[in-house]
Amino acid sequence: MPEAVVHVASGKVRELFALDDERLLLVASDRISTFDVVLPTEIPDKGRVLTGLSAFWFARTSHICPNHLVALREDGRSTECRRLEMLPIECVVRGYLSGSGWKDYRATGGVCGHELRVGMLESQQLPEPLFTPSTKAISGHDENIDRARALELVDASHFDTVERASIELYRFAADYARERGILIADTKFEFGLDAEGSIVLADEALTPDSSRFWPVDEYEPGRAQPSFDKQFARDYCESLGWDKTAPGPDLPEDIVAGTRARYVEAFERVTGISFAEYIDDPEVVLR
């Protein structure tokens, strides 16, 4: 008899179902969003890449922070997860000066309250990884915030814990990925509290949707970098003069194919596992 599930919520990319009082089923679709707008065109296998990479990292970082993963299902895009009380901030770590961090630096000379030296270049590596939290916007864009603003949203002890965990997770993953030809420029984590009040890593981890992945051999400070994430689709959307409000534009076949290829290459470079092998046996990423 099929397992009874109750649909709980829909995100930009994921569908969330309740399995029981202690477990949720997280299903990653092939939807893609740019500038916080879900586009009408899907990217084949994108959900499997996000699920497989997250599971890969969860399996290798549990010594740093416990995570919500209970089981990876055979479709390669669904995970059984522990129920948590999610914290209301995004935990962003930046190792390089890019994206909104670069815009912030040009405007203020710093990033989210962190002062930086004068004369830094776009995409330049930061002296140390920076923890730069943001709000979780229900609609519109997340807002970069400093520590003082974050402490209005979360308890100080929880903030300190997720700051330490986020930086340690980033350092571990950045070193691991660099050896495999990928620079993780920045990444976003989400955390929740379990029934005992302990901090638990949740949602996704170190994927092309939550991170900027750059090829090591093409890295050059002073410009935007080629990437293995959704920047390829984002650049196409920007080239159209789109106003970045819904509905988003359709993606042509070459942009779909190019975006899929970048996601799959990110998966294979990081894990050392062929994507075809993962499709045949998703649990290979846990071994």
3D architecture notes:
The protein has 287 residues and is α+β, with helices and mostly antiparallel strands. The protein is 30% helix and 25% strand. It has helices at 46-61, 99-108, 147-150, 156-178, 231-239, 253-271, 275-280, and strands at residues 6-10, 14-18, 23-28, 33-34, 37-38, 69-72, 78-82, 85-86, 89-96, 110-111, 114-115, 125-131, 134-135, 182-193, 199-202, 211-215. The strands form four sheets. Strands 8, 9, 12, 13, 14, 15 and 16 form a seven-stranded antiparallel β-sheet that branches. A hairpin with a 5-residue loop joins β14 (182-193) and β15 (199-202). α1 (46-61) runs parallel beside α6. It is globular and about 55 Å long. The two termini are 30 Å apart.
Supply Rg.
Answer: 18 Å
Report the major sheet: 7 strands, antiparallel
The residue fraction in helices comes out at 25-40%
Category by helix and strand content? alpha+beta
Shape: globular
Q: H/E series, N to C?
A: EEEEEHEEEEHEEEEHHEEEHHH
Oligomer: single chain
Number of strands: 16
User: Helix segment count?
Assistant: 7
Distance between the termini: 30 Å
Arithmetic mean of pLDDT: 94
- Measured by DSSP, the beta-strand proportion falls in 25-35%
Identify low-pLDDT runs: none
